[in-house]
Amino acid sequence: MEGGPTGKLLDAINGAFGSVAEFKTRFTEMGMKRFGSGWAWLVTNNGKLEVGSTPNQDNPLMDVGEFHGTPLLGMDVWEHAYYLKYQNKRDEYIQNWWNVVNWDAVAQRLG
């Protein structure tokens, strides 16, 4: 995938995070700081965009977690997602992950 968010999604990201670059920085941090297996998420929560992470198989729709919202974008940071290509280089995996984000699908989820 090329490009980045556009239209309403771009406006929402800029409104919530100040810029796409800042959003990517915060989202990447969620993926890097998740110890062990889990996910990084962009969600909408009460009409507001937020980033966070969940452990293991948990997601923002589950009652058991501390991070809630409706998922718009999720990044798998379980080792199985990247080990064969990147070994233990989660940072390199995340850097390249941005190249395959389907921004049109994210925008559709936003509505």
Structural features, described:
This protein has five helices and three strands; from the N terminus they run ααβββααα. It has helices at residues 7-17, 20-33, 83-86, 90-97, 103-110; strands spanning 38-45, 48-55, 70-76. 41% of the residues lie in helices and 21% in strands. It is globular and about 35 Å long.
Features:
3 strands, minor pseudopilin epsh fold, globular, alpha+beta, 5 helices, 111 residues
Secondary structure elements and their pairing?
Blueprint: H1 7-17, H2 20-33, E1 38-45, E2 48-55, E3 70-76, H3 83-86, H4 90-97, H5 103-110
Antiparallel strand pairs: 1-2, 1-3
Number of helices: 5
Question: What is the CATH top level name?
Answer: Alpha Beta
Biggest pleated-sheet summary: 3 strands, antiparallel
Q: What is the CATH H-level superfamily?
A: Iron/manganese superoxide dismutase, C-terminal domain
CATH topology: minor pseudopilin epsh fold
Could you say which structural class the secondary elements and strand pairing correspond to?
A: alpha+beta
What number is the mean pLDDT? 94
Shape: globular
Summary, kept brief:
The chain is an alpha+beta fold and 111 residues long. Helices cover 41% and strands 21% of the residues. A hairpin with a 2-residue loop joins strand 1 (38-45) and strand 2.
